[in-house]
Amino acid sequence: MRHWIGIDVSKATLDVALLDEQGKVTAEEKVANTERGLGSMWKRWIKTYGLKKSNA
To answer: CA-to-CA distance for 51 and 56, rounded, in angstroms?
Structure first.
């Protein structure tokens, strides 16, 4: 399954949304605008939604 990721960037945080093939919002998160904040969210989404870089 393919996914799309939308990111609203601000200085302190990132508002991130994960959409499925039909355009339905699967997940939404606000994370720190840091490598660590984005990395931990990415790891959660890999486990929860089977997300891969090749299908996102």
So the answer is: 7
Q: Which two tokens stand for residue 24?
A: 């339905």
Question: How many domains does one find in the chain?
Answer: 1
Q: What are phi and psi of 40, to 5 degrees?
A: -70, -35
Q: How far apart are CA 38 and CA 21, in angstroms?
A: 22
Q: Which domain holds residue 9?
A: 4-55
Give the pLDDT mean for 27-46: 95
pLDDT class for 56, splitting at 50, 70, 90? confident
- pTM attached to this predicted model: 0.84
